[in-house]
Amino acid sequence: HSLRNIDELCASIVRSHRETSQYRVEELQALKWKVFSREEYQAYQSKSVDEMWQHCAIRLTDAVQYVVEFAKHIPGFRMLSQNDQIALLKTGSMEVVLVRMSRFFNTENNTVFFDGKFAGVELFKSLACGDLITAVFDFAHDMCALKLTEQQIALFSALVLINADRPCLEDRGKVQRVQRSVEMGLTHILHRDNQDSLMHKLYQRMAVLRSLCSLHMEKLRWFSQRYPLTAHSLFPPLYKELFA
Ligand SMILES: CCS(=O)(=O)c1ccc(CC(=O)Nc2nc(-c3ccccc3)c(C(=O)c3ccccc3CC(C)C)s2)cc1
């Protein structure tokens, strides 16, 4: 890869990240201290488990749709077979949503952007999956500590998605070639920012993301057994397609 190619690759991934971001950082900086009132907390906490799960699943699916758009513009992703594209999105889209969400985490009052305001762990009590929620908050905290730039987040998100170690890939070699070019892009960006030491930390974060997503799948299995009707007929089709 000549340097020009790497620069072009980074530029197209950063552009795609920006165009599929759903919210811009400066937009949410303005909302940072817009928190839910006590009454609003109580309203969320008095929702039934299946109502709150459905509420969240709809928002999560909304966020995932933007990640699907992001993936389509990663150079090389569309050259992969349909099945490999689906396989990468099945396991990677939730991970990218978590990376993106951690940008809008207020570490001063431990709140995450949800339904237009910033919510603490307590608001999600009726989901009955405190360990998953706590793990998501801890991950967001950890990511904020790295103080990644939007360009670094864009390349990291692409690397999270283009992972040749994912299960059930038809042409692993082809995914490896795309993954290696994205890896070179991230290395290039971090070197340019004089932050080579971040690479190792980002690989550690990828391991945490994998455990977070398997915890999410475990909770979803528990939920679908307990509320089969909600899970099968009231969850968004894309959520079921990707996670169930
Ligand atoms: C992702 C693109 S973005 O522009 O950054 C963006 C775009 C849009 C928003 C608003 C938004 O949908 N926030 C949500 N927050 C949470 C959440 C919830 C519990 C703790 C922490 C965050 C949502 C979830 O449904 C969720 C997320 C991770 C794991 C588990 C769940 C619960 C489900 C599986 C039952 S949706 C935020 C950020």
Structural class, by secondary structure, is mainly alpha
- Share of helical residues: 55-70%
Radius of gyration: 18 Å
What is the average of the pLDDT values?
95
User: What best-fitting shape do the alpha-carbon axes yield?
Assistant: globular
Low-confidence stretches: none
Number of strands: 3
Strand content: under 5%
* Order of strands, widest sheet: 1-2-3
Each distinct ligand: the ligand CCS(=O)(=O)c1ccc(CC(=O)Nc2nc(-c3ccccc3)c(C(=O)c3ccccc3CC(C)C)s2)cc1
- What is the ordering of alpha helices and beta strands? HHHHHEEEHHHHHH
**Distance, first to last CA:** 39 Å
Largest sheet: 3 strands, antiparallel
Task: Count up the helices.
Answer: 11
How are the SSEs ordered, and which strands pair?
Layout: H1 3-19, H2 25-31, H3 38-45, H4 49-72, H5 82-101, E1 105-106, E2 111-114, E3 117-119, H6 130-146, H7 150-161, H8 172-192, H9 198-226, H10 228-234, H11 237-243
Antiparallel strand pairs: 1-2, 2-3
Helix pairs in contact: 1-7, 1-8, 4-5, 5-7, 5-9, 6-9, 7-8, 9-10
The structure holds ligand 4CZ.
